[in-house]
């Protein structure tokens, strides 16, 4: 094939694309002819004539009608104007507005038949016109693609360039999926799908073309994830921990409460990983209060019966202290020695602790990142548990490997992650879910309260505090302005200090405090030296204060559902009834919907799915998201069934021997090599 006439050519080879246009296309990530053809529309404008009764409010619609009145023109100033006509569409008499197009007054006459496309206001019976054609409706194509563009580049120009590219190079578009998968799912060939994506005639064209590319994108992404899993399992070492099942059963009898079925299921999954010769790489999800710590204790105990030490890493010292106490209560009675190591433990005490760790006298070490410092050496480390996945990543594992250690790793998170995101963001990991709450746990009563009702909320808080309970007051974290956030928290702190005067002690915590200061404030709250803690969202994942029964969240509409749920989960940890007040005057429908959902359910997984629907995958993990892929066509929320199908197919392909040498999988293997997963090595 002539290298000067291929899809890998610069887009400048397309007629009409000069230096300026080439530069604009480059800013959009379009460098080659193939890049141009793979720049898919983000929406399709529907130009079918439809009955207005079937059109939703604010939806774009195309109608044909007869003008019933002379156009009426109103000027607001020299540049702004509105032209109004009455149009008979079928039996409906509607108004059509044309903004800032006064010249149309001379073009439209009474009794003219015109075709108008625009936004339909169902309540007022009006259309705000975006396009006009004088004359009856003429059908060329039902759907017209709309593309993202930059600078002076127009959608019309881009559409022309894509048409020219397809005419000249379309016959070079190769199929990259094996024929058996195309037949299995009745997918369009790649060239046909690309043609229908850019030049659809009917809605079915769009549907089938999109279906093809959704599956393709998901399959290629999941191939990468599954290859990473396979490589991790087969090339990262690992230890087989043959735990004592009889001792494990006896340990269950020592627990103060029976395990839930979900906890038992997850424990079985973890124990299977321990026994396996491959290194565990598992994410454990569990809602607030679902009993993850008990599962962690069982895993550490099982590893100990196999002759190994364990480590539990948490983000803060006060949390480490609480976990150490919890594990001591559960594991200490079974004969395990639990110790705490944090950066504040120094001198002879630290030296003695590290010596006992080296000798294997300490069975479980709990702490912060102090656990992976250079001078910390385990005798026989078998299991590392961390409660925040993103804080124990590749670098930390590398530190352990360099010490000659390849322990099993269990990541715990209290943030329920929707299944669609879990298998995408954490596709290279196994995922376990505790989806059942222990019996007898009281539901947190949640109320949506308008801002002007704050006084009533504060009186209710006072009644609870008189009963010797405690309260969190949360102020929103505003990313654009730390200063504004800090001032907000200080204002509320000052107001509450004045309001309650000397009845109750009010504390303040925010992101600008030094870590040691935060620890001191949280410890004072934990010890009930502070009855009211005013804080930004730094308490979202924090300590266990069973005596805290009230959560008040200012400007609650500014938070996502998952974050609101995490904040609410700071209370409800003791025997007393707990309450959550959402102070909010939401202006948007989405904001109101969030408040209603929070009142209706306490289930973190239900909330996480709703949050994903309302916010989309890009915002679920926040703006600094954890490496979520950007798909050109696929949508993780709406196409989740295709995502699961692609995941299963990818796992099957990666683990079948002919995948690594059969010619029909050539393009899939090439993708893995180009994405750097294989580093030129086969995984078979």
UniProtKB/TrEMBL annotation:
<dbReference type="Pfam" id="PF17191">
    <property type="entry name" value="RecG_wedge"/>
</dbReference>
<keyword id="KW-0233">DNA recombination</keyword>
<dbReference type="InterPro" id="IPR033454">
    <property type="entry name" value="RecG_wedge"/>
</dbReference>
<keyword id="KW-0547">Nucleotide-binding</keyword>
<dbReference type="InterPro" id="IPR047112">
    <property type="entry name" value="RecG/Mfd"/>
</dbReference>
<keyword id="KW-0067">ATP-binding</keyword>
<dbReference type="GO" id="GO:0005524">
    <property type="term" value="F:ATP binding"/>
</dbReference>
<dbReference type="GO" id="GO:0003677">
    <property type="term" value="F:DNA binding"/>
</dbReference>
<dbReference type="Pfam" id="PF00271">
    <property type="entry name" value="Helicase_C"/>
</dbReference>
<keyword id="KW-0227">DNA damage</keyword>
<keyword id="KW-0413">Isomerase</keyword>
<dbReference type="InterPro" id="IPR012340">
    <property type="entry name" value="NA-bd_OB-fold"/>
</dbReference>
<dbReference type="Pfam" id="PF19833">
    <property type="entry name" value="RecG_dom3_C"/>
</dbReference>
<keyword id="KW-0378">Hydrolase</keyword>
<dbReference type="InterPro" id="IPR045562">
    <property type="entry name" value="RecG_dom3_C"/>
</dbReference>
<dbReference type="GO" id="GO:0006281">
    <property type="term" value="P:DNA repair"/>
</dbReference>
<keyword id="KW-0234">DNA repair</keyword>
<dbReference type="GO" id="GO:0006310">
    <property type="term" value="P:DNA recombination"/>
</dbReference>
<protein>
    <recommendedName>
        <fullName>ATP-dependent DNA helicase RecG</fullName>
        <ecNumber>5.6.2.4</ecNumber>
    </recommendedName>
</protein>
<dbReference type="InterPro" id="IPR027417">
    <property type="entry name" value="P-loop_NTPase"/>
</dbReference>
<keyword id="KW-0347">Helicase</keyword>
<dbReference type="InterPro" id="IPR011545">
    <property type="entry name" value="DEAD/DEAH_box_helicase_dom"/>
</dbReference>
<dbReference type="GO" id="GO:0043138">
    <property type="term" value="F:3'-5' DNA helicase activity"/>
</dbReference>
<comment type="similarity">
    <text>Belongs to the helicase family. RecG subfamily.</text>
</comment>
<dbReference type="InterPro" id="IPR001650">
    <property type="entry name" value="Helicase_C-like"/>
</dbReference>
<dbReference type="InterPro" id="IPR004609">
    <property type="entry name" value="ATP-dep_DNA_helicase_RecG"/>
</dbReference>
<keyword id="KW-0238">DNA-binding</keyword>
<dbReference type="InterPro" id="IPR014001">
    <property type="entry name" value="Helicase_ATP-bd"/>
</dbReference>
<comment type="function">
    <text>Plays a critical role in recombination and DNA repair. Helps process Holliday junction intermediates to mature products by catalyzing branch migration. Has replication fork regression activity, unwinds stalled or blocked replication forks to make a HJ that can be resolved. Has a DNA unwinding activity characteristic of a DNA helicase with 3'-5' polarity.</text>
</comment>
<feature type="domain" description="Helicase ATP-binding">
    <location>
        <begin position="273"/>
        <end position="434"/>
    </location>
</feature>
<feature type="domain" description="Helicase C-terminal">
    <location>
        <begin position="453"/>
        <end position="613"/>
    </location>
</feature>
<dbReference type="Pfam" id="PF00270">
    <property type="entry name" value="DEAD"/>
</dbReference>
<dbReference type="GO" id="GO:0016787">
    <property type="term" value="F:hydrolase activity"/>
</dbReference>
């Amino acid at each position: 094939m002539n290298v000067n006439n291929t899809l890998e050519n610069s887009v400048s080879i397309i007629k009409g694309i000069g230096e300026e246009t080439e530069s604009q296309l480059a800013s959009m990530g379009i460098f080659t002819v193939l890049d141009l053809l793979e720049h898919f529309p983000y929406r399709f404008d529907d130009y079918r004539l439809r009955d207005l009764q079937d059109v939703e409010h604010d939806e774009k619609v195309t109608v044909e009608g007869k003008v019933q009145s002379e156009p009426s023109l109103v000027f607001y100033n020299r540049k702004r104007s509105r032209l109004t006509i009455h149009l008979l569409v079928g039996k409906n008499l509607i108004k059509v507005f044309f903004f800032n197009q006064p010249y149309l007054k001379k073009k439209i006459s009474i009794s003219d038949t015109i075709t108008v496309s625009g936004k339909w206001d169902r309540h007022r019976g009006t259309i705000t016109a975006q396009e006009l054609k004088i004359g009856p409706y003429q059908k060329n194509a039902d759907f017209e693609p709309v593309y993202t563009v930059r600078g002076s580049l127009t959608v019309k120009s881009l559409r022309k360039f894509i048409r020219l590219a397809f005419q000249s190079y379309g016959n070079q578009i190769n199929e990259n999926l094996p024929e058996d998968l195309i037949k299995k799912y009745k997918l369009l060939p790649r060239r046909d799908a690309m043609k229908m994506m850019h030049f659809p005639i009917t809605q079915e064209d769009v549907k089938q073309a999109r279906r093809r590319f959704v599956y393709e994108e998901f399959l290629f992404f999941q191939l990468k994830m599954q290859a990473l899993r396979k490589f991790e399992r087969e090339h990262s070492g690992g230890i087989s921990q043959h735990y004592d099942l009889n001792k494990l059963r006896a340990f269950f009898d020592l627990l103060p409460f029976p395990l839930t079925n979900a906890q038992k299921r997850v424990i079985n999954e973890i124990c299977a990983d321990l026994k396996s010769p491959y290194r565990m790489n598992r994410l454990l999800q569990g809602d607030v209060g679902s009993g993850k710590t008990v599962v962690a204790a069982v895993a550490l105990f099982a590893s100990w019966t196999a002759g190994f030490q364990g480590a539990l890493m948490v983000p803060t010292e006060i949390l480490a202290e609480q976990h150490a106490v919890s594990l001591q209560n559960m594991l200490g009675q079974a004969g395990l020695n639990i110790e705490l190591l944090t950066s504040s433990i120094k001198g002879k005490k630290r030296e003695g602790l590290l010596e006992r760790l080296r000798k294997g006298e300490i069975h479980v070490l709990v702490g912060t990142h102090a656990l992976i410092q250079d001078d910390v050496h385990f005798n026989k480390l078998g299991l590392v548990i961390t409660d925040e996945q993103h804080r124990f990543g590749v670098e930390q594992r590398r530190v352990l490997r360099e010490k000659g250690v390849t322990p099993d790793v269990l990541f715990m998170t209290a943030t329920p992650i929707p299944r669609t995101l879990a298998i995408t963001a954490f596709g290279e990991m196994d995922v376990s879910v505790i989806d059942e709450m222990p019996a007898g746990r009281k539901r947190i009563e949640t109320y949506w309260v308008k801002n002007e009702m704050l006084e009533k909320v504060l009186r209710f808080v006072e009644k609870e505090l008189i009963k010797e309970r405690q309260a969190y007051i949360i102020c929103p974290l505003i990313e654009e302005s730390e200063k504004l956030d800090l001032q907000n928290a200080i204002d509320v702190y000052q107001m509450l200090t004045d309001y309650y005067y000397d009845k109750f002690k009010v504390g303040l915590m925010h992101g600008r405090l030094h870590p040691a200061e935060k620890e001191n404030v949280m410890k004072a709250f934990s010890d009930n030296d502070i009855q009211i803690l005013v804080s930004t969202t730094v308490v979202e994942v924090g300590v266990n204060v069973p005596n805290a029964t009230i959560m008040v969240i200012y400007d609650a509409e500014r938070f996502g559902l998952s974050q609101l749920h995490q904040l609410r989960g700071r209370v409800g940890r003791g025997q007393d009834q707990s309450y959550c007040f959402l102070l909010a005057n939401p202006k948007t429908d989405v904001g109101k919907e969030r408040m209603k959902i929070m009142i209706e359910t306490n289930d973190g997984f239900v909330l996480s799915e709703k949050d994903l629907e309302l916010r989309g995958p890009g915002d679920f993990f926040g703006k600094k998201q954890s490496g979520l892929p950007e798909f050109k066509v696929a949508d993780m929320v709406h196409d989740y069934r295709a995502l699961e199908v692609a995941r299963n197919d990818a796992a099957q392909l990666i683990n079948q021997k002919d995948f690594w040498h059969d010619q029909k999988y050539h393009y899939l293997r090439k993708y893995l090599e180009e994405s750097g997963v294989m580093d030129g090595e086969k995984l078979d």
